[in-house]
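Retry 2 of 3 after timeout on previous attempt. Resubmitting structure tokens to design endpoint.
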């Protein structure tokens, strides 16, 4: 291993995840704990993530059709100050429709956000300053 360079990249950076809380029955929880204790999963979180991903894989065709029908962008949608300035100047504000993360740049003022964004529909998470969130509150579906 000496002299070797290893690069590690996170597949899903922590900034692109959100914590959720679920309630489970004691039997379900006990079964998960047993699988963890037997080494099938590293921990409860590993089991739950795997179960969710497996279910999403099973429903992939329905997700694909729904994404197309709703005309949403899939993944990470970064909104820059320059993009919003151009949208505001053209008189054609953006209609953000995202399944994943919509991230509005930190240098975007609440005034620019209102001028450059007509509507916001996000299934996932919206990353924006408190001021921008407040300025767009009446435009969020």
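Retry 2 succeeded. Sequence:
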């Amino acid at each position: 291993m000496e002299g070797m360079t290893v690069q590690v990249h996170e597949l899903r950076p922590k900034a692109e995840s959100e914590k959720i809380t679920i309630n489970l029955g004691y039997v379900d929880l006990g079964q998960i704990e047993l699988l963890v204790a037997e080494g099938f999963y590293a921990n409860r979180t590993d089991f739950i993530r795997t179960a969710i991903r497996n279910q999403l894989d099973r429903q992939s065709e329905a997700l694909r059709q729904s994404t197309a029908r709703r005309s949403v962008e899939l993944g990470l949608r970064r909104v820059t100050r320059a993009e919003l300035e151009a949208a505001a100047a053209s008189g054609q504000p953006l209609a953000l429709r995202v399944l994943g993360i919509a991230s509005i740049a930190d240098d975007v003022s609440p005034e620019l956000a209102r001028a450059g964004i007509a509507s916001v529909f996000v299934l996932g998470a919206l990353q924006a300053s408190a001021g921008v969130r407040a300025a767009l509150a009446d435009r969020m579906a």
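Attempt log closed. Strands lie at 73-79, 94-104, 117-127.
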